[in-house]
From TrEMBL:
It comes from Muricoccus roseus. Residues 7-309 form the NAD(P)-binding domain. This is Nucleoside-diphosphate-sugar epimerase. Coiled coil: none annotated. It holds the Pfam family GDP_Man_Dehyd.
Length: 363
């Protein structure tokens, strides 16, 4: 059955801003309900209705779900900053575990027939990647940071809730990037620095974490395609099914930086900083997406060079406009974004600190 009312949590976030247009294209007749944490955030661009839904306020969740009247739920909202999870682990546990379980319990009570698609994370496998073999869904989770542990716990809880009737689908996306991502993530951090160097706002020096690391990367648009396909096929998926969303191809972090510099034409010195390394780290991440290919017919479609060009073009635009926060995504940003060189900084720009560069394992 095609959903008539789709509730999307985290609608105003990086992935949510890409997922809303994808949902509109796939389900043009559906009402898209964009949930954000606060009512004053307004309606997320691309949604039909707004809903205030704060995962940290467990007592409000049943009423919020009842007001939305969903017949499908896509749960993206989370505290996804790995670095912040080390600084405040309890916040990650409260939102990512208790908030997710509270929302799922509310859906099970108020809208029990609604598929509940959860954006889990490839990070849940953590230290299991050290075995050096592609990680499949039956691999025992071994999370290596508080964020990953909180997501693994929520993932496990939804597996149990599926036994009680929740139509849970546990999506485990690996590292993904694209236009609109914050510079707290590695590709966006590199692109932001390159764009600032181009504009004369930063000396030709790039500060990074470990470059000899390999990660299984995807374009965010391919991730959204997987989510949409899973929702469309929800009736055919066993409750509680877990699906790795990954490329199966590890990419070296240093090679990504080299590619961005080549796309830009910038010459810069690269300086690795020990402070940017995680307390626990994994050299190589490699996922097995055979199940998603089999049950969804899904495979990543966007060439990696196009992804990098898209991220760099986005950061050039943001730097030129003097902003770091992303603006609303245009249709152009969902297609291949044309490269453009914006030259020197416009009047009024000022030097800013170099952005952080965290190195994710799986999302």
């Amino acid at each position: 059955m095609r959903p008539a009312r789709i509730l999307l949590t985290g609608a105003g976030g990086f992935v949510g801003r890409h997922l809303l247009p994808a949902l509109r294209a796939a389900f043009p007749e559906a009402v898209l309900i964009g949930a954000t944490r606060r009512a004053d955030e307004g309606r997320a661009p691309g949604s039909d209705e707004a809903l205030a839904l704060d995962l940290d306020q467990l007592g409000t969740l049943p009423d919020a779900v009842a007001a939305a009247r969903p017949d499908a739920v896509l749960h993206l909202a989370a505290r996804a900053d790995v670095g912040a999870s080390f600084r405040d682990p309890l916040a990650a546990w409260r939102t990512n575990l208790m908030g997710t379980v509270g929302l799922a319990e509310a859906v099970l009570r108020v809208a029990p027939r609604a598929p509940f698609l959860m954006a889990s994370s490839g990070e849940v496998y953590g230290l299991a990647f050290r075995a050096g073999t592609p990680v499949a869904e039956d691999t025992t989770p071994a999370p290596a940071n508080p964020y990953a542990a909180s997501k693994a716990a929520a993932d496990l809880a939804l597996g149990e809730m599926a036994l009680r009737g929740l139509r849970a689908i546990r999506m485990r996306p690996f590292t993904h990037t694209g236009a609109g991502q914050s510079d707290g993530f590695v590709v966006a951090a590199f692109a932001h620095q390159v764009a600032r160097i181009e504009a004369g706002l930063q000396p030709p020096l790039l500060q990074t974490g470990a470059l000899d690391r390999w990660r299984d990367f995807l374009d965010v648009r391919d991730v959204c395609s997987a989510y949409v396909t899973a929702l469309a096929r929800a009736d055919d998926l066993a409750p509680g099914m877990a699906l790795n969303i990954c490329s199966g191809t590890p990419r070296r972090i240093g090679d990504m930086l080299d590619s961005l510099l080549r796309l830009s034409g910038v010459e810069a010195r690269v300086e690795q900083e020990a402070a940017r390394l995680r307390p626990t780290d994994v050299e190589r991440v490699l996922g097995d997406c055979s199940r998603a290919r089999a049950v969804l017919g899904w495979a990543p479609a966007i060439p990696w060079e196009e992804t990098l060009a898209t991220v760099l073009a986005d950061w050039r635009e943001r730097v030129a406009q003097g902003r770091v926060a992303p603006g609303p995504l245009s249709a152009r940003q969902h297609a291949q974004m044309p490269r453009q060189h914006l030259g020197r900084a416009p009047p009024g720009h000022r030097l800013e600190p170099v952005p952080d560069c965290r190195l994710p394992l799986g999302d």
